[in-house]
Amino acid sequence: MALFSKRYPNLYKDSVSLMQISAALGRTQGIGEVTVAMATEANLARMREAGLALDMAPSPGDLVIALTADDEGVAEAALAAADAALTPKGDDGGSDGMRPLPLKSIGMAVERHPGSNLALISVPGRYAAAEARKALAAGLNVMMFSDNVAEPDEIDLKRLAEEKDRLLMGPDCGTAIINGMPLGFANVVRRGPVGVVAASGTGLQEVTCALHHLGTGISQAIGTGGRDLHAGVDGRTMRQAIRMLADDPETSLIVLISKPPEPAVARKVLNAARTCGKPVVVHFLGETVGATDGGVVRAHSLRHAAEVAVALMAGKTPPAPAELSPSLRTAAATAAGRLAPGQRWVRGVFAGGTFCYEAQLILLAGGSACESNAPAPGATPLVELARGHGNSLVDMGDDAFTEGRPHPMIDPSLRDARLLAEAADPETAVLLFDVVLGHGADADPGRGLLGIVEGAKAAARSEGRELVIIAHVCGTELDPQPRTPLVAALEAAGVLVAGSNAEAANLAAHVVACIREE
Amino acid sequence: MLLPGLSLGSSWPASVDGRIGPVFRRVCNVDVDDGSLLVLTAPDLPHLPRALKLRVSVPLDQLFQPGTAFHLSGGLWRCGGVSGTCLDAVVWQPPPIGERVSDSRRRARVEAASARLGTYLDRWPEKRLPPEVEILATRLGSALARGDVGELKRAAGALVGLGQGLTPSGDDLLVGCLAWLARRPEMRGCRDGLAEALRPRLATTTTVSRHYLIEALAGRVSEPLALVADALDAPRPALPVWEAVEAALVIGASSGADGIAGLLAAARSDFNRSTGSDHGSIQ
User: How far apart are alpha carbons A133 and B13 in whole angstroms?
Assistant: First the structure.
């Protein structure tokens, strides 16, 4: 084969483009060795070693193509193809080899997109308040994904937002659906007449998914940030969101979700709900549920909140919380009967903080003490962060686990390792976990998880034990990771997949009760 | 037309003369008469040590023509019919280098960054280090871990200019490595060794790459790399490691990934130095 080459003085192209051109030329019939590279001394030396010694003296700023070919015609055609590929074709998004970082300046963004009406702020906490102020000053609504924002800043920002009649979601607001647009971690759900306001990220996801599964849809889903119902913040975002949804013609009913609020704040929020003119379903996790009060109906769990909402919209009496189905009770009892002596604890490993919290409440209500790194009232702090003792429910999204790592909803590797560790404990009876689907979440949650489930079961079996594995998959068929195939795969792997987080926790509590009875 | 400057790097000079070099939509290189390089950039690009961000909304290749004389003096610059000011520009400073996070937390961050880089390269395999660079990178990491300055110099010398693109992968990797060594005064011997190996070979690589290597030898790197180093090492970093790595990965075609690989190779040598274990693969 003969050597052919071409030099392009002072032509700069990025390495991936050059690699693609090299690969394309290399696949051409009749072409042998190919190199397309900047003519640095190191590259020229490598070309010489590959039999592509050039009879020219390019400078390091030149781009060279060198190839061997059977005949001149093939070589000329290949060089012409490379020439076409190297010729700029206008705005190709990367001819300068650099791409923009995500916009950092609110002012620049507004200048470039003057129709914008919402800023999503996701910068380190100590800078987030300043960015939120800029956004509010520019007349934008704000979603603050950032956490670690000081409470006085939050209070000040929410006052400012009220003054400007803008909505400030957050800080630490991980999810919202505004005008059908998922923001942060959010599931793809049907649009519909229910407005959801939540001070809990996965709580909001659970309720919006449940509403979708029950056949209705979402007008707006507004996150307030986890501290909104604290005394100092005074429920400002939740009360403002209630007013906005009351004025929203697309919203027929409002659902409010939060961990237990300060009593004085709860009164203000409930008063806003009573007077908003639309039916409101409220679920404050862990709070003793009272009677219906002035159009405000209280729900017992996240799932129950969705069921009550659907019933009210259909003009029906709100249902009582669903009990475990006979088939699930039987499955749980059967599984409990296979446990070895000494297996008696539930080990919960959660990506969703609210799921961990709700599961604790359900275990406690069933008479089982439990520990957690994010203990609900009545639970005790983890004795040891690295492993469970007794019934332990771990929030893997807690800062203690996410130092330098993405949240387990994005990268579940730590969650998976924890599942295996808990499965190896001979006292573990039930492995309980959640999988959160949707935008922002792990693109292929089944990929590693199914292997983990199999590995956990096999390890237990090798020691003469069985495990009861219970999961809840929060998501919809419309999510980037459709729910049904994952549920089917988990069930095929022997996992009891519950329809809601509450049902999963109830199932775990039932297994523990069966063990106690034995 | 007087273009305002938004911000500039800390080594932006007071006065120079040069000519416009390669110009792209968001980057305009200025070949300075002393052989160095200045960079004019669009506002949405990251900071560079020797760059001026312009407040412009038109592509830079519509403003500047290669070969046009460029003159900078007294905070004002002039290039053909275009002129601008850097008097109001904010000087960008990288995160300060100071206290270090504990070994265990740094190890967790390095592993997290490696995992993210690995996932990214699984998705974009064409952005992996070329095999010949990967081999040398492994040698470089091992030499750093052992403090073997001779081997370090041999590996670094062979990496200069090695790789296909505008900034060859070998150079990007070396820049990342230098970004970490700038934080480690106790590795001064290695840094000096690298400098000895690189300086005589700088003329053998591309102009743009030479510029970044010179800056890195002086301890100055681009904003994304500085933020990754800070995220790995600082007790209270400006960005979490996840966000810092994400931001750096989008730089260039593979330059971001190559630079992170170099940074991680050097960062990992912290641990391997104390345990004496072999360096292993870096990607």
Answer: 34
> What is the dotted CATH code of the domain comprising A2-86?
3.30.70
Contacts of A247 (CB under 8 A, 6+ apart): none
Beta bridge partners of A186: A439
Q: Which of B100, B166, B169, B223 to mutate to test the interface with A (most CBs of A within 10 A)?
A: B166
Contact assignment for A13 to B166 by CB distance below 8 Å: yes
CB A408 within 8 A of CB A395: no
**Chain B, nearest residue to A92 by Cα:** B25
> Check: CATH 2.40.50 for B2-91?
yes
> Which residue in chain B is spatially nearest to A105 when comparing CA positions?
B44
Q: What is the pLDDT of residue A90?
A: 45
Question: By C-alpha distance, which of A69, A74, A30, A25 is closest to A51?
Answer: A69
pLDDT per residue as tens digits for the range A101-122: 445 578 777 877 778 899 999 8
Q: Of the candidates A16, A101, A411, which has its C-beta nearest B46's C-beta?
A: A101
Same fold? A103-172, A326-517: yes
The domain limits of chain B are 2-91, 103-275
B247: contact with A, CB 8 A cutoff: yes
Return the domain boundaries, chain A. 2-86, 103-172, 174-322, 326-517
Contact B206 A40 (CB under 8 A): yes
Report the distance separating Cα A370 and Cα A166, nearest Å.
42
**Section B100-126 average pLDDT:** 89
| Minimal C-alpha gap between A41 and chain B (Å) | 5
Among B residues 49-108, those touching chain A with beta carbons less than 8 Å apart: 57, 66, 105, 108
Phi, psi of A244, rounded to the nearest 5 degrees: -65, -45
- A-B contacts (CB, under 8 Å): 156
Residue in chain A closest to B127 (alpha carbons) equals: A16
Which of 3.40.50.720, 3.40.50.2300, 1.10.10.10, 1.25.40.10 would CATH assign to domain A103-172?
Answer: 3.40.50.720
Distance CA B7, CA B14 (A): 14
Fold of domain A174-322: Rossmann fold (3.40.50)
A232 — alpha (psi -120 to 50), left (phi > 0) or beta? Answer: alpha
pTM listed for this prediction: 0.59
pLDDT at A91: 42
- Partner-chain contact A60 B43, CB within 8 Å: no
Percent of chain B with pLDDT over 70: 96
CB contact under 8 A, A14 and B25: no
Interface predicted TM-score (ipTM) of this complex, two decimals: 0.77
pLDDT in tens, A461-515: 999 999 999 999 999 999 999 899 999 999 999 999 999 999 999 999 999 999 8
Q: Please tell me if residue B203 touches chain A, with a CB cutoff of 8 Å.
A: yes
Residue B264 sits at the chain A interface (C-beta within 8 Å):
no
Q: Which residues of chain A have pLDDT under 70?
A: 88-104, 289-292, 403-405, 518
Alpha carbons A412 and A427: distance in angstroms, whole number: 24
Give the residue, A164 or B124, on which the prediction is more confident.
A164
Class of domain A326-517: alpha beta
